[in-house]
Amino acid sequence: DVIGITMRLWKLDDPAAVPSKRRCCSVEDTDDARQAADAAGIPHYVLNMEREFQQRVVDYFVAEYGRGRTPNPCLACNEHVKFRALLDRAMAFEADFLATGHYARIEGDGASRRLLRAVDPNKDQSYVLYTLGQAELARTLFPVGALTKPEVRALAAEMRLPVAEKPDSADICFVPDGDYRAFVRDRLPRAAGVTVDRGGAVVARHDGVDGFTIGQRKGLGVALGERRFVTGIDAERNVVTLGVEDDLMSRGLVAENVNWIGGAPHAELRADTKIRYRTSAAASTVTPLEGGRARVTFDRPQRAVTPGQAAVFYDGDAVLGGGTIARAER
C-alpha cells in the first residue's frame, strides 16, 4: 500500500504560501500533490510541520546570517524536517519506507548502505543529503535518482499526472519575493559596523553583517575604482573586510558537526570535497579531528570558501560524509 503525504510549512495567510513558479511549498503545490495522489489512486494527507520548519529552518537561517555566515536552508530542512520529523510521522502511519523526489541514489543493504550521486548530474542533490545516517537510509527511497529529469517528466506525462510539465523550483521556498537579504533584515536588529580594506583602513560603514557573504562583489556600499570582494566577516566586531581576488583563495578549511555516513575514519583519507551546491568537487585530503570536526586540505586552493556552507566529501559517486564550514584556512 502507498499513501501520499505533503508538509504544510506555512499558515495559509503567510506570503510564503502564495503560489510562485520558482518556489515550492505553497497552497498551489499542496493542491498539485493532492491531484497527483488522486491520479495515482492513493490517499493523500497534509501534515502540519509549521513549528518544526520555523524553528529548524527559518530561525536557523536568520541566526546564521546574524553570525556572519551563509547558511544552506535545504540542508537544515533535510536533516531536521524531512528526514527526522517527517520520517517519524511516516513511520507513525506504519509505513516501511519514505519515498521522496530527491535526485540521489541509495545502494546496499543491512548496516552498510551508501548514498550516491544521482544519474542526472544536472539535478544531483546528494550534496544536501550528507546528514543522513544508516538509520535514515534504511527507511528511505529515492525512486527518481536513477532517472534523468526528462525521463521523469515523460513518466509523469504517461501516468497523466498534472505536474508533468511543472517548472522546477529555484528560489528559497520561504522567501516570498526572492529577496533573502530583506527577509533577514526584517528579523534581525540592526547593528552598525565598518567595512575595511585589506590593510584595515575604514572605507565604509554598514548596518549589519547579515547583508554580506564571502565572495560578494556588488552592494558593498563603497566604490574603490577597482574590483573588490568581501573576503572576511567578523560578526563579533561587526567588521567586514574587502580584498582582491587572490584574497579569496584558500588552501583548506575546518568543518564542524561532521557526519560520516559509513562511520568515522580513523586516519586521514583522500576525497573530492564540494564546498557549495553548484561547484565541482575538488581533490583534497580530509583529516578527522576531535569534537566532530574535520580539516580539509585542497590539492589546489579553492575560491570563496564560505563559513555556514557545507563541505561534502565524495569517493567517486559515493558521499562519505560532510560538515558545516567553520572557517577557511588560507
Describe it for me?
This protein folds into three domains: 4-95 and 148-158, Rossmann fold (3-Layer(aba) Sandwich); 190-243, Roll (SH3 type barrels); 248-329, Translation factors (Elongation Factor Tu (Ef-tu), domain 3). Helix content is 22%, strand content 29%. With 330 residues, the chain is of the alpha+beta class. It has six helices and 16 strands. The model has no long low-confidence stretch (mean pLDDT 93). α2 packs antiparallel against α3. The strands form four sheets. A six-stranded antiparallel β-barrel has the order 11-14-13-12-15-16. A four-stranded mixed β-sheet has the order 8-7-10-9, with no helix packed on it.
* Helix segment tally: 6
CATH class placement of the largest domain: Alpha Beta
Walk across the major sheet and give the strand order: 11-14-13-12-15-16
CATH-assigned fold name of the largest domain = Rossmann fold
Residue fraction in strands: 25-35%
Helix content: 10-25%
Choose one word for the global shape: globular
Low-confidence stretches: none
Q: Element order, helices and strands?
A: EHEHHEEEHEHHEEEEEEEEEE
The helix-and-strand class reads alpha+beta
Mean pLDDT: 93
CATH level-4 homologous superfamily of the largest domain: HUPs
Separation, N- and C-terminal Cα atoms: 54 Å
The count of β-strands is: 16
Quickly give the CATH architecture of the largest domain. Answer: 3-Layer(aba) Sandwich
